[in-house]
Amino acid sequence: MNAAKTSSAAIALYAILSLGAMPIFANSAVAQVATDATSTAPTTNTVRIEGSSSMKVTNNNRIAQIKQSSPDAQITTRYNGADAALKSVLDGTADLAAIGRPLTEREQQQGLVAVPQKRQKIAIIVGAANRFTSNLTFEQFAKIFRGEIKDWSELGAPPGRIQLVDRPDTNDTRLALQNYAVFKQAPFVATPNAIKVADDTIESAIEQLGSRGITYTVSDAIDNIPGIRIVPMHKTLPRDPRYPFSQPLAYVYKAGTPRPAVAAFLGGTAAAASIPEAAPAPVETTSTTTVTRSTTENDFPWLLLLFPLLGGLLWW
Q1: Comparing 20-24, 155-159, 189-193, 299-303, which segment has the lowest mean pLDDT?
Q2: N or C: which terminal CB in the chain sees fewer CB atoms within 10 Å?
Q3: What predicted TM-score, i.e. pTM, was given to this entire model?
């Protein structure tokens, strides 16, 4: 009989110990899931940038600067347009979108945060062989764009049909032009005779200029490119502070605290400290909450519950 009681007591003790251990193993499993949720994040020294070709020079200058102090930094760039780049940032497949326009209200509501860079002047350019050597006004360029001025002779140059080389509709520089009052006086529609380049690079547009073409681009994109000439606007060139056309540039990230490599790219620890705080991304929130809950549960003294039960068993 005593042996039977001893056996029963041992079984009961084993059951109690098993129940007491269950929360610990459960918490370990939860913590592992939380770790796995963030295991797909890019490496610590990687920055993935997508965006507009109008930011190409700005990107290259920043990358060269970063490489001087951090040679191991892995910074990738892809020029797929502002809209596609912003979607990639929201999806988590890009860290930064480099764009040449302001964020819309809807994009801000989606949790996108812009870090403004310096504004860039918009240059109006022609081919080096173009016989137009004077300057243009706001109104004249707008009329060329819409097809209301069709011949170079209307601007004091030798006769020849004007060929507008237009950029894709999603081009940031094109979008910036339509914000000026002179382009709001009529529908922002290019002349039907325009050559519309499909590839959103300034090189593709320059190839179409010839001796009659005219196009537009951010001014720093044409430094050291031969075979072109910048047309003065109101007798000023882009390097002149009085030059009229410009567009905003910005890096955009998803609301939350950027990874250290991303913050460093945006301007170092000082810039990172000034980045607005916001709610983390959903996956990160879930992971943080889960880990916090696990820590709280692990801190509970489960084994203390065993002592009264063990005393009762021993007495029985």
Answers
A1: 20-24
A2: N
A3: 0.67
Q: From edge to edge, which strands make up the β-sheet containing 112-116?
A: 74-79, 46-51, 96-99, 250-254, 112-116
- On whether the CB atoms of residues 252 and 157 are closer than 8 A, the answer is no
Residue matched to tokens 């039907």: 192
* Cα-to-chain-centroid distance, residue 166: 25
